[in-house]
Amino acid sequence: MTSRRDRLALGILLLACTAGLTGCGQRSPDVAPLERAKGELASGHAAGAKFILDELLSEGAPAPALAAYFGEAALARGDLEEAARWLDPGNFSEDTRAHGLRMQGQLAMARGNLPAAGQAFDRSLSLDPGSAALWVDIGRLRYRGGEQLQALEAADRAVALGPQQAVALQFRGQLSRDSQGVVPSIRWFERALAAQPGNLDIRVDLAATLGDAGRAKAALEVLRGEGGQAVGHPRGEFIQGVIAARGGKFSLARDFLERSGLGKEGVASALLLSAIIDIHEGNFDSAAQTLDRLYGRQPDNGRVVDLLALALSRGGSEAELVHRFEKRAAGPAGSNYLRTLVGRAYEAMDDRVSASRFLDLAAQGSRGLSALPISGGLPEERDRIRSAIARGQSVDALGQARAFARQFPGSGDALALLGDALLASGNRDEAAQAYSKSAKVRKPWPLVPRMASSVNGKAAARYMLEDFVVANPMNGEAAAMLSDAYALEGQWTRAAALLDHAISLGHGRVPWVLSARSIAAAHLGESEEALQYAIAANSLQPMNQSAVRALLGSLPRDQLEARAELSTKLRSLDRR
Fold first, then answer.
1. How far apart are CA 114 and CA 148, in angstroms?
2. What are the ranges of the TPR repeats (predicted)?
3. Is residue 358 located within the same domain as residue 377?
4. Is residue 102 part of a domain?
């Protein structure tokens, strides 16, 4: 028989073995420090988590029980080599195996090996099918792989499994921002932050979204919350820089941007902000260099193209501007702003014939479908289909677009291209269906006018524009276009308010916006304002038909000679 002392010792030994993370024979880590490390990781404090894990390891905790968390901390810091050292061997304790496999999947995604990521996530899912965080990872993988509709399904499943889990709510907010707009996504980020107030990543996501919704004060309050750690976070500094730039404080914006360090890291949004600051400060050569670097990475980004063209124009590089962007300006992807810049560059080069051609194109407004931005790696397929549309080969374009959509049935980009091909072939109903499915994934502004043109009835089109403007109040072009819809209905007060909003957002040098504001002022009985807006529009683009009409309509009746000249000019423009 064993003694009472022997039975007690045996009971303690058995307790140690069953409570251990790796079984009897290895010392288990202290639960409290491990939970603190996991909490630090969940809050985005990778350095703090690593410190705790290092302490546990030095005190004798078994490496397999900590490997998954060491790998997670390294991934959060962007140290893939360190992450691989802990994750590649797959030496995880039984209790942490599902989490370790999930981290292996994240590492594979970071390396760009999507099939390996999918295999790791599948193995993790077999061990822990109820993990909301894992479904978030699966959703991110699907999104990167072009299965964007399936990514949305994964996000919804993550929220269903973890309705109070911050990472699931944050991911759903990010998808909502893409598809529904900045304002609707705010509530998701607010819920995520309420679930985990110490998470810096979620805090800056919410602050950035509030800033993009025009709520600068609320954005700054969020950054300063929970001890103000987000204020000094690189993304926090960047957000403050964007807010300062929007307020016209460009020197302060530069200070915030430099403190963020994101420009030196080559982050695209930081490069764009740096260039905008340079343009406003008159450093056009510097702006052009930065934008050229960004253009090399994002050749389809119309805003980058327009800003680069502006920097070249202001910097006196008209020949380079023409050489680089003449072809784009002449095609469907060219904005009216780019056409104007190319036309003025030709004027500076004393080529009046070429200048007139591009200025006329700009005065006529957009023709056809411009290229939608592509979120994935599918530019070649997009270009082939768009080229067929531009050449009027609608049957060929539609066949290619249908095949492309079948190949990538969950891709919002493929659905948008299918909508373009259907619209070009005259099939508005099917185009509307394709656009609607695409918008569930991502609804950038260029998609909205297409959606509006595919539906039946002006009221339905106006509703789409209203929905977008409410969700994205800082989009001046959308506000201006919605004003057009109100003007057609005779709602001049609303139209004028939207045009004033668009002008405040930087559209004060867009001729058709100023012309529309002139017409709205005239209908509201504001004759002096109508004349001033019309004069401003004509000074920007004298050959713009809408600007000429606005000036003709606002000139006093007794200005007979000027009115006769404008009438002759308008008849000449109408014949073109």
1. 14
2. 98-131, 132-165
3. no
4. yes
359 with 343: CB under 8 angstroms? yes
38-56 exposure pattern, b = at least 16 Cβ within 10 A, e = fewer: bebbbbbbbebbbebbeeb
Q: How far apart are CA 416 and CA 165, in angstroms?
A: 32
Closest C-alpha among 80, 78, 83, 45 to residue 67: 83
Same domain, 353 and 418: no
**Rounded Cα–Cα distance for residues 383 and 312 (Å):** 26
Kindly report the backbone phi and psi dihedral angles of residue 370, in degrees, each rounded to the nearest multiple of 5, phi listed first: -80, 165
Q: Are residues 409 and 425 in the same domain?
A: yes
User: Is the residue at 572 inside a domain?
Assistant: no
d(CA 411, CA 140): 13
In a domain, 514, yes or no: no
Work out the burial of residue 532: count CB atoms within 10 Å of its CB; fewer than 13 is exposed, 13-18 middle, 19 or more buried.
Answer: middle
> pLDDT tens digits, residue range 158-206?
999 999 999 999 999 999 999 999 999 999 999 999 999 999 999 999 9
Q: Which residues of 477-496 are buried (b: 16+ CB within 10 A; e: fewer)?
A: bbbbbbbbbbbeeebbebbb
Enclosing domain of residue 47: 21-129
Total-model pTM:
0.87
Q: Is 525 exposed, middle or buried (0-12, 13-18, 19+ CB in 10 A)?
A: exposed
pLDDT tens track for 262-302: 999 999 999 999 999 999 999 999 999 999 999 999 888 88
First to last CA, the chain: 111
Over its C-alpha atoms, the chain yields an Rg (Å, rounded) of 29
Confidence class for position 362, pLDDT limits 50, 70, 90: confident
**pLDDT over 60 at 446, yes or no:** yes
Q: Do 285 and 294 form a contact (C-beta atoms < 8 A)?
A: no
Residue 355: CB atoms within 10 A of its CB come to 18
Q: Are 487 and 516 in contact (CB under 8 A)?
A: yes
For residue 428, give both structure tokens: 């508005």
Q: Give Cβ neighbours of residue 340 (< 8 Å, ≥ 6 apart).
A: 358, 359, 362, 541
Whether 186 contacts 473, CB under 8 Å = no
How many domains would you assign to the chain?
3
Q: Based on the fold, state whether residues 346 and 397 are members of the same structural domain.
A: no
Q: Which structure tokens are listed for 15?
A: 């307790």
Judged against a pLDDT cut of 90, whether residue 386 lies above it is answered with no
